[in-house]
Specification:
Elements lengths: L4 H4 L2 H4 L10 H8 L4 E2 L11 H10 L12 H11 L6 E4 L2 H12 L5 E5 L5 H8 L3 E5 L15 H7 L4 E7 L11 H10 L5 E5 L24 E6 L12 E4 L2 H10 L7 H11 L2 H24 L3 E2 L6 E5 L5 H9 L2 E2 L1 E2 L8 E5 L3 H10 L2
Parallel strand pairs: 1-11, 3-4, 3-5, 5-6, 6-7
Antiparallel strand pairs: 2-8, 7-8, 9-10, 10-13, 12-13
The structure holds pyridoxal-5'-phosphate (PLP).
Length: 368
Protein backbone atom coordinates (compact mmCIF):
# COMPACT_ATOMS: atom_id res chain seq x y z
CA UNK A 1 0.00 0.00 0.00
CA UNK A 2 1.32 3.43 -0.87
CA UNK A 3 1.82 5.99 1.82
CA UNK A 4 -0.77 8.81 1.68
CA UNK A 5 -0.14 11.43 4.35
CA UNK A 6 -3.12 13.56 3.30
CA UNK A 7 -5.47 10.63 3.98
CA UNK A 8 -3.95 10.23 7.43
CA UNK A 9 -4.55 13.88 8.40
CA UNK A 10 -7.32 14.46 10.94
CA UNK A 11 -10.80 15.45 9.76
CA UNK A 12 -10.30 19.18 10.29
CA UNK A 13 -6.92 19.28 8.54
CA UNK A 14 -8.21 17.23 5.57
CA UNK A 15 -10.58 20.09 4.78
CA UNK A 16 -7.88 22.78 4.96
CA UNK A 17 -5.60 24.07 2.24
CA UNK A 18 -2.13 25.49 2.92
CA UNK A 19 -1.78 29.28 3.15
CA UNK A 20 -1.26 30.87 -0.26
CA UNK A 21 1.82 33.06 0.24
CA UNK A 22 1.12 35.01 -2.97
CA UNK A 23 4.11 36.41 -4.82
CA UNK A 24 7.64 35.27 -4.00
CA UNK A 25 8.73 38.52 -2.37
CA UNK A 26 12.40 37.60 -1.79
CA UNK A 27 12.74 36.86 -5.53
CA UNK A 28 10.95 40.11 -6.43
CA UNK A 29 13.24 42.12 -4.15
CA UNK A 30 16.18 40.73 -6.14
CA UNK A 31 14.49 41.48 -9.45
CA UNK A 32 13.28 45.02 -8.73
CA UNK A 33 15.68 46.16 -5.99
CA UNK A 34 14.81 49.51 -4.49
CA UNK A 35 12.02 50.27 -6.95
CA UNK A 36 9.84 47.44 -5.63
CA UNK A 37 6.78 48.96 -3.92
CA UNK A 38 5.42 46.45 -1.40
CA UNK A 39 1.84 47.59 -0.84
CA UNK A 40 0.29 44.17 -0.26
CA UNK A 41 0.73 43.43 3.45
CA UNK A 42 -0.22 46.60 5.36
CA UNK A 43 3.24 47.11 6.79
CA UNK A 44 4.16 50.50 8.24
CA UNK A 45 6.79 52.08 5.97
CA UNK A 46 7.95 54.46 8.73
CA UNK A 47 9.43 51.46 10.55
CA UNK A 48 9.57 50.82 14.30
CA UNK A 49 10.65 53.10 17.12
CA UNK A 50 14.46 53.46 17.15
CA UNK A 51 14.25 52.38 20.81
CA UNK A 52 12.98 48.97 19.63
CA UNK A 53 16.10 48.47 17.51
CA UNK A 54 18.38 49.46 20.40
CA UNK A 55 16.56 46.97 22.63
CA UNK A 56 17.04 44.17 20.06
CA UNK A 57 20.77 44.87 19.93
CA UNK A 58 20.96 44.89 23.73
CA UNK A 59 19.13 41.54 23.91
CA UNK A 60 21.37 39.78 21.35
CA UNK A 61 24.12 38.52 23.74
CA UNK A 62 21.47 36.47 25.62
CA UNK A 63 20.09 34.89 22.46
CA UNK A 64 21.38 31.43 23.47
CA UNK A 65 18.90 31.40 26.37
CA UNK A 66 15.22 30.53 26.19
CA UNK A 67 12.94 33.57 26.42
CA UNK A 68 10.95 34.31 29.59
CA UNK A 69 8.03 31.84 29.17
CA UNK A 70 5.70 34.25 30.99
CA UNK A 71 6.84 37.41 29.20
CA UNK A 72 6.45 39.01 32.62
CA UNK A 73 8.23 42.27 31.96
CA UNK A 74 6.33 43.00 28.74
CA UNK A 75 3.03 41.99 30.35
CA UNK A 76 3.67 44.46 33.18
CA UNK A 77 4.40 47.22 30.64
CA UNK A 78 1.27 46.32 28.66
CA UNK A 79 -0.89 46.20 31.79
CA UNK A 80 0.28 49.68 32.75
CA UNK A 81 -0.22 51.01 29.21
CA UNK A 82 -3.72 49.50 28.88
CA UNK A 83 -4.94 50.00 32.44
CA UNK A 84 -5.41 46.23 32.73
CA UNK A 85 -4.10 43.48 35.01
CA UNK A 86 -1.22 41.22 33.91
CA UNK A 87 -3.51 38.21 34.52
CA UNK A 88 -5.70 39.46 31.66
CA UNK A 89 -2.93 39.35 29.06
CA UNK A 90 -1.92 36.47 26.77
CA UNK A 91 1.07 36.93 24.48
CA UNK A 92 1.15 35.31 21.05
CA UNK A 93 3.55 34.63 18.17
CA UNK A 94 1.61 37.22 16.21
CA UNK A 95 -2.06 37.78 16.91
CA UNK A 96 -2.71 35.15 14.22
CA UNK A 97 -1.53 32.52 16.69
CA UNK A 98 -3.88 33.87 19.36
CA UNK A 99 -6.88 33.84 17.01
CA UNK A 100 -6.14 30.16 16.28
CA UNK A 101 -5.51 29.37 19.95
CA UNK A 102 -8.87 30.82 21.01
CA UNK A 103 -10.69 28.47 18.61
CA UNK A 104 -8.57 25.49 19.65
CA UNK A 105 -9.31 26.07 23.33
CA UNK A 106 -13.01 26.89 23.11
CA UNK A 107 -14.50 25.33 19.95
CA UNK A 108 -14.85 21.82 18.54
CA UNK A 109 -17.04 19.83 16.15
CA UNK A 110 -20.07 20.27 18.43
CA UNK A 111 -19.93 24.06 18.25
CA UNK A 112 -20.18 26.85 15.68
CA UNK A 113 -18.18 30.03 15.10
CA UNK A 114 -19.62 33.19 13.51
CA UNK A 115 -17.78 35.79 11.44
CA UNK A 116 -18.67 38.27 8.74
CA UNK A 117 -18.48 37.99 4.99
CA UNK A 118 -15.41 40.04 3.98
CA UNK A 119 -14.02 39.51 7.48
CA UNK A 120 -10.37 38.68 8.17
CA UNK A 121 -9.16 35.51 6.37
CA UNK A 122 -7.83 33.88 9.55
CA UNK A 123 -11.32 33.56 11.08
CA UNK A 124 -12.59 30.77 8.75
CA UNK A 125 -9.20 29.03 9.02
CA UNK A 126 -9.32 29.04 12.83
CA UNK A 127 -12.87 27.71 12.60
CA UNK A 128 -11.93 24.88 10.23
CA UNK A 129 -8.82 23.96 12.24
CA UNK A 130 -10.99 23.55 15.35
CA UNK A 131 -13.45 21.44 13.32
CA UNK A 132 -16.27 23.86 14.22
CA UNK A 133 -19.22 24.80 12.01
CA UNK A 134 -18.68 28.15 10.26
CA UNK A 135 -21.51 30.71 10.27
CA UNK A 136 -20.73 33.30 7.62
CA UNK A 137 -22.93 36.37 8.11
CA UNK A 138 -23.56 38.54 5.02
CA UNK A 139 -21.92 41.98 5.16
CA UNK A 140 -23.83 45.22 4.77
CA UNK A 141 -24.90 45.70 1.14
CA UNK A 142 -22.53 47.31 -1.29
CA UNK A 143 -24.81 50.26 -1.96
CA UNK A 144 -25.32 50.89 1.76
CA UNK A 145 -25.08 54.66 2.19
CA UNK A 146 -22.87 54.83 5.26
CA UNK A 147 -20.57 51.82 5.43
CA UNK A 148 -20.71 49.53 2.39
CA UNK A 149 -19.40 45.99 2.99
CA UNK A 150 -19.04 46.62 6.74
CA UNK A 151 -20.03 44.09 9.39
CA UNK A 152 -23.82 43.76 9.88
CA UNK A 153 -24.01 43.42 13.66
CA UNK A 154 -27.81 43.07 13.70
CA UNK A 155 -27.59 40.11 11.33
CA UNK A 156 -24.73 38.76 13.46
CA UNK A 157 -26.94 38.78 16.59
CA UNK A 158 -29.65 36.86 14.71
CA UNK A 159 -27.10 34.32 13.44
CA UNK A 160 -25.82 33.37 16.90
CA UNK A 161 -27.09 29.93 17.96
CA UNK A 162 -27.05 28.10 21.28
CA UNK A 163 -23.95 26.21 20.09
CA UNK A 164 -22.10 29.33 18.88
CA UNK A 165 -19.00 29.45 21.03
CA UNK A 166 -17.12 32.30 19.33
CA UNK A 167 -17.86 35.40 17.24
CA UNK A 168 -14.85 36.93 15.47
CA UNK A 169 -15.04 40.60 14.50
CA UNK A 170 -12.20 42.80 13.28
CA UNK A 171 -12.64 46.50 14.07
CA UNK A 172 -11.52 48.23 11.93
CA UNK A 173 -11.78 45.33 9.49
CA UNK A 174 -9.26 43.91 7.05
CA UNK A 175 -9.66 43.82 4.00
CA UNK A 176 -12.47 46.40 3.86
CA UNK A 177 -11.00 49.04 6.22
CA UNK A 178 -14.53 49.58 7.57
CA UNK A 179 -15.55 49.85 11.22
CA UNK A 180 -18.47 49.93 13.64
CA UNK A 181 -18.71 52.53 16.38
CA UNK A 182 -18.90 52.33 20.16
CA UNK A 183 -22.69 52.44 20.32
CA UNK A 184 -23.01 49.60 17.78
CA UNK A 185 -20.59 47.40 19.71
CA UNK A 186 -22.30 48.07 23.04
CA UNK A 187 -25.71 47.25 21.54
CA UNK A 188 -24.27 44.06 20.06
CA UNK A 189 -22.60 42.83 23.25
CA UNK A 190 -25.80 43.39 25.22
CA UNK A 191 -27.53 40.85 22.92
CA UNK A 192 -24.84 38.14 22.93
CA UNK A 193 -25.34 35.25 25.36
CA UNK A 194 -22.65 34.72 28.02
CA UNK A 195 -21.91 31.31 26.45
CA UNK A 196 -20.53 32.99 23.32
CA UNK A 197 -17.08 34.56 23.35
CA UNK A 198 -16.77 37.78 21.35
CA UNK A 199 -13.31 38.34 19.87
CA UNK A 200 -12.66 41.92 18.76
CA UNK A 201 -9.53 41.95 16.58
CA UNK A 202 -8.04 45.45 16.92
CA UNK A 203 -4.99 44.96 14.68
CA UNK A 204 -5.41 48.48 13.27
CA UNK A 205 -6.50 50.23 16.47
CA UNK A 206 -3.44 52.48 16.67
CA UNK A 207 -4.30 54.05 13.29
CA UNK A 208 -7.84 55.05 14.31
CA UNK A 209 -8.70 58.74 14.23
CA UNK A 210 -12.52 58.62 13.85
CA UNK A 211 -14.66 60.00 16.65
CA UNK A 212 -16.86 57.43 18.41
CA UNK A 213 -14.50 54.52 17.74
CA UNK A 214 -12.67 53.63 20.92
CA UNK A 215 -11.13 50.34 21.95
CA UNK A 216 -13.40 47.52 23.12
CA UNK A 217 -11.06 47.23 26.13
CA UNK A 218 -13.30 49.63 28.05
CA UNK A 219 -16.08 47.00 27.99
CA UNK A 220 -14.04 44.15 29.52
CA UNK A 221 -15.16 44.86 33.11
CA UNK A 222 -18.79 44.44 31.97
CA UNK A 223 -18.35 41.48 29.60
CA UNK A 224 -16.21 38.55 30.81
CA UNK A 225 -16.91 36.83 27.47
CA UNK A 226 -15.07 39.59 25.55
CA UNK A 227 -11.54 39.12 24.15
CA UNK A 228 -9.58 41.94 22.50
CA UNK A 229 -6.59 41.08 20.31
CA UNK A 230 -3.87 43.48 19.18
CA UNK A 231 -0.63 43.16 17.24
CA UNK A 232 2.80 44.77 17.03
CA UNK A 233 2.87 43.99 13.28
CA UNK A 234 1.01 47.02 11.95
CA UNK A 235 1.40 50.48 13.54
CA UNK A 236 4.34 49.31 15.68
CA UNK A 237 6.04 48.10 12.47
CA UNK A 238 7.50 44.92 13.99
CA UNK A 239 5.82 42.36 11.71
CA UNK A 240 9.05 40.41 11.28
CA UNK A 241 9.25 39.61 14.98
CA UNK A 242 5.80 37.97 15.19
CA UNK A 243 4.19 39.20 18.39
CA UNK A 244 0.67 40.13 19.42
CA UNK A 245 -1.45 40.00 22.55
CA UNK A 246 -4.93 39.25 23.79
CA UNK A 247 -6.67 41.02 26.66
CA UNK A 248 -9.53 39.14 28.30
CA UNK A 249 -10.97 38.25 31.66
CA UNK A 250 -8.37 36.40 33.77
CA UNK A 251 -10.43 33.19 33.54
CA UNK A 252 -10.30 33.22 29.72
CA UNK A 253 -6.56 33.93 29.84
CA UNK A 254 -6.11 30.97 32.20
CA UNK A 255 -7.81 28.66 29.67
CA UNK A 256 -5.64 29.95 26.79
CA UNK A 257 -2.58 29.40 28.97
CA UNK A 258 -3.29 25.64 29.06
CA UNK A 259 -2.60 25.24 25.34
CA UNK A 260 -0.17 28.11 24.70
CA UNK A 261 3.27 26.84 23.71
CA UNK A 262 5.50 27.88 26.62
CA UNK A 263 8.16 29.74 24.60
CA UNK A 264 5.89 31.04 21.84
CA UNK A 265 7.25 34.60 21.95
CA UNK A 266 10.96 35.07 21.29
CA UNK A 267 13.30 37.15 23.43
CA UNK A 268 13.96 39.83 20.79
CA UNK A 269 10.22 40.37 20.38
CA UNK A 270 9.74 40.62 24.16
CA UNK A 271 12.53 43.15 24.62
CA UNK A 272 11.80 45.33 21.61
CA UNK A 273 8.05 45.63 22.06
CA UNK A 274 8.48 46.80 25.63
CA UNK A 275 10.76 49.57 24.34
CA UNK A 276 8.36 50.34 21.48
CA UNK A 277 5.45 50.56 23.89
CA UNK A 278 7.32 53.16 25.92
CA UNK A 279 7.73 55.33 22.81
CA UNK A 280 4.12 56.37 22.23
CA UNK A 281 5.38 59.53 20.55
CA UNK A 282 6.42 57.34 17.62
CA UNK A 283 2.94 55.78 17.41
CA UNK A 284 1.31 59.22 17.39
CA UNK A 285 3.67 60.24 14.59
CA UNK A 286 2.79 57.09 12.60
CA UNK A 287 -0.95 57.66 13.12
CA UNK A 288 -0.80 61.29 11.99
CA UNK A 289 1.40 60.50 9.02
CA UNK A 290 -0.78 57.53 7.98
CA UNK A 291 -3.92 59.66 8.17
CA UNK A 292 -2.59 62.36 5.87
CA UNK A 293 -0.86 59.96 3.46
CA UNK A 294 -4.01 57.78 3.20
CA UNK A 295 -6.09 60.88 2.45
CA UNK A 296 -3.59 61.91 -0.21
CA UNK A 297 -3.61 58.44 -1.79
CA UNK A 298 -7.42 58.26 -1.77
CA UNK A 299 -7.72 61.74 -3.30
CA UNK A 300 -5.33 60.84 -6.11
CA UNK A 301 -7.20 57.56 -6.74
CA UNK A 302 -10.52 59.43 -6.83
CA UNK A 303 -8.99 61.84 -9.36
CA UNK A 304 -8.46 58.80 -11.61
CA UNK A 305 -12.17 58.00 -11.32
CA UNK A 306 -11.74 55.17 -8.81
CA UNK A 307 -13.85 54.56 -5.74
CA UNK A 308 -12.37 53.76 -2.33
CA UNK A 309 -14.11 52.56 0.81
CA UNK A 310 -13.83 54.69 3.94
CA UNK A 311 -10.87 53.42 6.00
CA UNK A 312 -9.54 53.74 9.54
CA UNK A 313 -6.51 51.57 8.72
CA UNK A 314 -3.25 51.85 6.80
CA UNK A 315 -4.77 50.54 3.57
CA UNK A 316 -7.63 51.35 1.23
CA UNK A 317 -9.95 48.98 -0.59
CA UNK A 318 -10.19 50.25 -4.15
CA UNK A 319 -13.19 49.43 -6.31
CA UNK A 320 -12.22 49.27 -10.00
CA UNK A 321 -15.74 48.57 -11.23
CA UNK A 322 -14.36 45.74 -13.40
CA UNK A 323 -12.21 42.65 -13.00
CA UNK A 324 -9.20 43.93 -11.05
CA UNK A 325 -6.89 40.98 -11.87
CA UNK A 326 -5.46 42.64 -15.04
CA UNK A 327 -4.81 45.80 -13.01
CA UNK A 328 -2.95 43.78 -10.40
CA UNK A 329 -0.93 42.06 -13.13
CA UNK A 330 -0.01 45.40 -14.76
CA UNK A 331 1.08 46.85 -11.41
CA UNK A 332 3.09 43.70 -10.73
CA UNK A 333 5.01 44.15 -13.99
CA UNK A 334 6.01 47.61 -12.73
CA UNK A 335 7.18 46.20 -9.39
CA UNK A 336 4.13 47.41 -7.46
CA UNK A 337 2.67 44.70 -5.21
CA UNK A 338 -0.97 45.02 -4.12
CA UNK A 339 -3.45 42.42 -2.84
CA UNK A 340 -6.01 40.68 -5.05
CA UNK A 341 -9.42 40.37 -3.40
CA UNK A 342 -10.92 37.55 -5.47
CA UNK A 343 -10.31 35.12 -2.59
CA UNK A 344 -12.59 37.30 -0.48
CA UNK A 345 -15.29 37.36 -3.18
CA UNK A 346 -14.41 40.90 -4.29
CA UNK A 347 -12.83 40.29 -7.74
CA UNK A 348 -13.34 43.93 -8.79
CA UNK A 349 -11.37 45.30 -5.83
CA UNK A 350 -7.72 45.56 -4.80
CA UNK A 351 -6.43 46.21 -1.31
CA UNK A 352 -3.63 48.78 -1.39
CA UNK A 353 -1.49 49.57 1.66
CA UNK A 354 -0.47 53.15 2.36
CA UNK A 355 3.19 53.20 1.37
CA UNK A 356 5.87 55.85 1.53
CA UNK A 357 5.14 58.88 -0.67
CA UNK A 358 7.60 57.54 -3.26
CA UNK A 359 5.87 54.12 -3.30
CA UNK A 360 2.44 55.70 -3.57
CA UNK A 361 3.58 57.81 -6.53
CA UNK A 362 4.99 54.70 -8.19
CA UNK A 363 1.62 52.99 -7.74
CA UNK A 364 -0.31 55.97 -9.14
CA UNK A 365 2.05 56.19 -12.13
CA UNK A 366 1.78 52.47 -12.85
CA UNK A 367 -2.04 52.25 -12.76
CA UNK A 368 -3.22 51.21 -16.21
C1 LIG B 1 -2.45 41.93 10.07
C2 LIG B 1 -3.62 41.49 10.87
C3 LIG B 1 -3.43 40.77 12.04
C4 LIG B 1 -2.05 40.63 12.60
O1 LIG B 1 -1.49 39.47 12.45
P1 LIG B 1 -0.12 39.16 13.20
O2 LIG B 1 -0.17 37.70 13.28
O3 LIG B 1 -0.17 39.80 14.57
O4 LIG B 1 0.98 39.73 12.37
C5 LIG B 1 -4.53 40.36 12.76
N1 LIG B 1 -5.77 40.69 12.37
C6 LIG B 1 -5.99 41.43 11.27
C7 LIG B 1 -7.36 41.82 10.92
C8 LIG B 1 -4.91 41.83 10.49
O5 LIG B 1 -5.12 42.52 9.37
Amino acid sequence: MTFDAAALANAATRKLRAYDPGHDLPALRKRFGKVLAELGSNENPLGPSPHAIVAIEAALPEIFRYPDPQGGSLKAALAKHLGADTAQITLGNGSHELLMLIAQCFADADTSIAFSEFGFAVFPIATAAAGAQPIRVPALPRDHATMPLGHDLNAMVRAIRADTRIVYLANPNNPTGTWFDDAALEGFLACVPATTLVVIDEAYHEFVTAAGLSSALRLLPRYPNLIVTRTFSKAYALAGLRIGYAVSSPSVAAVLERLRESFNVNSLALASTEAALNDQGHIVKCRDWNFSEREYLAKRLHAQGLRTLPSQTNFVLVDFGRDAAPVEAALFEHGVIVRLMSGYGLPDCLRISVGSRAENERLLDALP
